[in-house]
Amino acid sequence: MRNVFFLICILFFSHNVMAEEIEQSKTDIILSDLASPFTTDAKYILLGGTLITTYIALNKEDFSEKTANRVAHDPPLGNYGYIGEALGWGYLNAIYTMGHLIHGYFYKKDKSLQRAEMMADASFYTLLTTAAIKTAVKARRPEYPEENDSFPSGHASMSFAFASVVTAEHGLYLGLPAYAIASFISVSRVNDGRHWSHDVLAGATIGASFGWGVYLNHRKKKSPFFLTILPNADLKSATFMSAYSF
């Protein structure tokens, strides 16, 4: 993935800028961020997303293949899928990180530096996890069978990591548009025959889990809500579950 080196550089730079503010060792921080989808309330996203992705993957003929066939004859985004393809390479994550890093560094704004570090961390661990799973699974793409890096979608994972950090830090006013962009990017990958439906669901799950997980780990707080999707007992439908604490 062509944005790996760029994001590694951003992560390295942001950690060095924040070095004076960090009391924990970098090793402890890295390990706690890597584990954050399991140790924070982001586990609800990870659990629900993993279950529904697994269900759809195991029923590929009924879901992913039918969707791919429909899209091949009538792509919902038409010829505009290239926009999602261009946006999904991690540029949104990088722009957010660099913007807050520069603002925090020159104007001495600790919150901006923290936001830069948070986005860099969430993006890097999302990218690392996505690349590792791609290498292990080696799934072929719907319309590009010569390529074996379909599962999970890196575009979906990076865009949902971006949207989750934006929502966590800035609220729904900016979060809803960010998630709309992430959804557009994810749909564009199915639209263009680059991914199966379960690829983008898995990518979205990874990105959202790290986006919220890293945020909750950095802020040392519990989420006031959770959202998840769980298959029903009949395995023919799913239930959307949510809760909010006042």
- Just name the CATH architecture: Up-down Bundle
Global geometry: globular
Distance between the termini: 42 Å
- CATH fold descriptor: Vanadium-containing Chloroperoxidase, domain 1
| Level-1 CATH class name | Mainly Alpha
Report on this structure.
The chain is mainly α and 246 residues long. It has one domain (46-227): Up-down Bundle (Vanadium-containing Chloroperoxidase, domain 1), CATH 1.20.144. The chain is 67% helix and 6% strand. The protein is built from 11 helices and 2 strands. Strands 1-2 form a two-stranded antiparallel ribbon. A hairpin with a 6-residue loop joins β1 (225-231) and β2. α1 (4-17) packs antiparallel against α8, α6 crosses α10 (172-191) and α8 (110-137) packs antiparallel against α9 (154-170). It is globular, with a radius of gyration of 18 Å. Mean pLDDT is 84; it is low at 19-23 and 242-246.
Concise account of the structure shown:
The protein is mainly α and 246 residues long.
Topology:
Elements: H1 4-17, H2 26-34, H3 36-39, H4 43-58, H5 64-73, H6 81-87, H7 91-107, H8 110-137, H9 154-170, H10 172-191, H11 197-219, E1 225-231, E2 238-244
Antiparallel strand pairs: 1-2
Keywords:
two-stranded antiparallel sheet, 6% strand, mainly alpha, Vanadium-containing Chloroperoxidase, domain 1, 67% helix, 246 residues, disordered C terminus
